[in-house]
Design a protein that fits this description.
Blueprint: E1 7-16, E2 22-25, H1 28-33, E3 46-49, H2 57-63, E4 69-75, E5 89-93, H3 94-98, E6 109-112, E7 115-123, E8 126-130, E9 140-150, H4 153-163, E10 170-174, E11 177-182, H5 188-202, E12 206-211, H6 212-246
Parallel strand pairs: 11-12
Antiparallel strand pairs: 1-2, 1-3, 1-9, 4-9, 5-8, 6-7, 7-8, 10-11
C-alpha cells in the first residue's frame, strides 16, 4: 500500500473532464495523438515522492492507500488548479501594451510584471487580463499507472535532483552519505535547503555538494598521499632489511 513519503514511478495522462481534452501526459504516443507533443519534454515515467507536492493535491491524496497498478482518478477543481477567482481578472491600460508594440487580442498570452495571463477582452483603450491558471475551475481526469515503488537511495536522490531541475555530474552514496558533484558551486543557502530536503526524504545521514574542480583536487591529494605512503613503506622496509643485514 502506498504511503506518504513513498517514492513511486508512474505514467499518467491528464484530461479536462468536460471536453476530454488531453493537456498533459508522460507517454509520447498519447502526446502525438493529442497534438500536444513537444521536443522540449522527454516523455518517460516520472519518479515522485508522495505527499511532497510533486503532483496536484487531489491526485497526490488519491494515491495514498493504493497498490502499484492502473487507476482512473477524478480530481475536483478545488483540489487541482483551484477555482476561478474574479479578483484575478485585471483591467490593464492599453497604453501598457502599445508602448512595447504589442497589439492585444482575445486569447493572447501576456506577461505583466512577471505574471502570466490571458487577454479576455480588448476595447476602448482597456484590456481585461485573466491571471487565473488556465486550468482553474476545471475538474480533471487522470489515467495513471503506478509502475513500482522506489527503494534505492541513489535512484531517489537522482529523482529529487531532476524534479528540482538541478544539473549534476555524478552521485556517490557510501555509508549513508551522499556526495553530489555539480558543474558550478551552489549558493550556501540553496545547498543547505537541498541537503536538508534530500536527507529528510531519502533518509540519509549526510548530503554534500562538490564541484568537479573540488573533486579533482581531492583526488589529486589522495593520489599524492598514496604515493607518499608507498614511499614511506618502502623506506621502512629498506631500513628493516639493512638492520637485519648488520646483525
Amino acid at each position: 500500500m502506498l504511503r506518504k513519503g513513498d517514492f513511486i514511478e508512474l505514467d499518467y495522462t491528464a484530461r479536462i473532464k468536460e471536453d476530454k481534452v488531453v493537456f498533459d501526459t508522460t507517454i509520447e504516443q498519447v502526446a502525438r495523438d493529442a497534438n500536444i507533443h513537444t521536443t522540449k519534454f522527454k516523455y518517460k515515467p516520472v519518479i515522485i515522492c508522495i505527499g511532497e507536492k510533486h503532483l496536484i493535491k487531489g491526485l497526490d491524496d488519491a494515491l495514498i492507500g493504493k497498490k502499484p497498478g492502473k487507476y482512473t482518478i477524478e480530481v475536483k477543481a478545488e483540489n487541482a488548479f483551484g477555482k476561478k477567482t474574479p479578483q484575478l481578472l485585471k483591467l490593464i491600460p492599453l497604453s501598457l501594451f502599445t508602448k512595447d508594440n504589442i497589439k492585444p487580442f482575445v486569447g493572447l498570452e501576456v506577461n505583466v510584471d512577471g505574471l502570466l495571463g490571458v487577454v479576455r477582452s480588448a476595447s476602448s483603450g482597456r484590456v481585461i487580463v485573466d491571471f487565473n491558471h488556465p486550468l482553474a475551475g476545471h475538474d480533471l481526469i487522470y489515467d495513471v499507472e503506478v509502475k513500482r515503488i522506489i527503494t534505492d537511495p541513489l535512484e531517489k536522490t537522482r529523482a529529487l535532483l531532476e524534479l528540482m531541475n538541478l544539473k549534476f555530474e555524478d552521485i556517490d552514496i557510501t555509508d549513508n552519505t551522499v556526495v553530489i558533484t555539480t558543474n558550478t558551486k551552489l549558493p550556501e543557502s540553496a545547498a543547505k535547503d537541498l541537503s536538508d530536503n534530500i536527507k529528510k526524504l531519502v533518509k540519509l545521514r549526510s548530503v554534500e555538494f562538490k564541484t568537479e574542480e573540488e573533486v579533482k583536487k581531492e583526488l589529486k591529494k589522495e593520489v599524492k598521499e598514496d604515493k607518499e605512503e608507498k614511499k614511506a613503506k618502502e623506506k621502512r622496509k629498506k631500513g628493516r632489511k639493512k638492520s637485519e643485514e648488520e646483525k
